[in-house]
Amino acid sequence: MRRSLTALAIALGLVAAAMPPAQAQTPGWHARATQFANRPALAFGVAWYPEQWPEARWQTDLQLMQRAGFNTVRLAEFAWSAMEPEEGRFDFSWLDRAIAAAAQSGMMVVLGTPSAAPPAWLTQKYPDTLRVDEDGKRAAHGGRRHFSFASARYRQFAARIAAEMAKRYGKHPSVVGWQIDNEIGPPSWDPESVAAWRGFLEKRYGNIAELNRRWATQYWSQHYNNFDQIPLRATGQHNPGLLLDFKHFTTAIWTDYVRAQATVIRAHADPRQFVTTNTMFWNAGFDHFALHRVVDMASWDNYIPNGRPDWVANGANHDLVRGYKQRNFWLMETQPGRVDWVPVNRALDPEQVREMAWQAVGHGADAVLYWQWRPARNGQETYHGALLGSDGTPVPVFDEVARTGKELAQAAPLLADTQPVADVAMLFSYDSRWAIDIQRHHKDFDPVQQFLSLYRPLRIRAQGVHVVAPDADLGGYRLVVAPSLHVLTEAQTDRLAAYVRGGGHLVLGPRSGMKDDANALWPERQPGPLADLLGAEVEQYYALDAPVEVQGSYGTGRASIWAETIRPVAKDVEVLARYTDPGGWLDGKAAAVTRRVGEGRITYIGGWLDDSLLATVATRLLDGADIRPVLPDVHPDIEVSLRSGASKRAVILINHGAEPHSIALPAGASPVTGDLTGGTLPAHGVAVIELR
Ligand code: GAL
User: 381 alpha carbon to ligand 1 midpoint, in Å?
Assistant: First the structure.
């Protein structure tokens, strides 16, 4: 099942400038997202707000950016009032000059469409464009994201400014891409949104009888006579079908919203300019896999709010973002030190800003951009980390950033055209996450934490995990783990079953296969439509207020928060672990089972197991699938990431710990940049290695 690295590289190829002809001919996204000839393979830069500063200062800024090693600036994503100071009157003269100055300094430019921050003239004249919260309160002007995502009028204004920008800069040789809006997210409950919701439901279900059937509205007399009766709600005591469909609705509206701007940009832009939108970590507001179908490339904003990075958890974020399009992505924002939006805005320790940059690259980022260059004189974010202080000179972290820039430039030729490689995929299902959050049953059953409980041991051991949608093509993976595939559709069932029958190993975690995509119970016991393939079913599930012992071939440990008893049905089902729960419901019952299916295998783990048991589980699963780490025997503080291209392999090593560790490199490996000396990686050290 191992996909050939060459095929992977071709499928995921990114930078055309260095591409061999066969890849360059690949149509579609590759061509679109490709940077222009002679562009650096890795972008390194910053969000720059020239509109906030006197023009006389710009050259100084750009010179300092060059000193930081930057080759990219992101501009204009909050500059609507500067670009369209009055309705229909556009002024791009300042932006023309800012782009020209940036270009002269050798910068690539990413332009943000400014729709996250509507100008006062717009919201004053058209208050219907302002968002309304779930309690019916209309937003006031003065912050950002205070528009209604469903407002047709707002979309027109947003599309118009995006189109004007694209007409002007769509062929600009220094403009490499477009960022639509900025961290889209909050929905709205204004009358237009309510109407759109009802239209959405009508389209989804066809008629009200079908909606009633799928939501099982006989319950509590919820029966609807027509779509106009259905309230738009996201929280509260509502039908779980309604609440899950609210998420489907927000996904559809935000996708339309982004598509509307993408369409006008593409109408004017050089196809080599990418279109993206920057997203936030673990944002549950919409299905990111679905939304990313309308953009060319994923990008995201990586912040460590408390300044205490957990490298594995942060790596999972990157892998999720990579999974949106199963391709490399851009890190559009990250903190030069600290944020300003949590109760204690601790700065990262020395060298951790550099670690974060390299971690992103290791997981597939082809760009690292900081937020922000210099704090504005005033505004809501004057306390946020920046590269310059209030006097316009570098802050202490500047030198670390500059060193990172030099190293990125050294490693760029090796990293060009390479992508992260993994034999393990983990399925992340937004529907499942939402459905569990709607009815957690145990307050501590946090689907993201539960996902991480399995991601952590797998990532540490396999040194590469891809996170993909439950309907992704799984053909290239030897092991597929779905920590909690609560919502399971028939189409997904077919794909997963085909994967197992084709020789793959599918591992399902607790709560899998319980609901359909209307958040209704499957009529079969869990894992619902996969129960036949498993040859076993969940007899009962239990929320735990105290851990329960689990024993079996994984060793002895405990299940907490959640435990399901599994009843084997087919004769060839093997019990891997049982609960010990004297006097309790779980005693002696199966906690994990597995079944061979042809050349493949399906495993079900019914409890939320403790970390050390999961470490053994991960080792067994990886051994069973013959998945070897890139570098064996490295200390768990060392992050190892492999990026491969058609004829090259690069390993990025990061010591996230506070102690030095020795690393044994394979024969023929040569360091390209970083701190590896005498086989030792110092505390917080980084090294990029070329493998031959
Ligand atoms: C991001 C946002 C930026 C800035 C930053 C501060 O979420 O996109 O505009 O506000 O946070 O951390």
Answer: 9
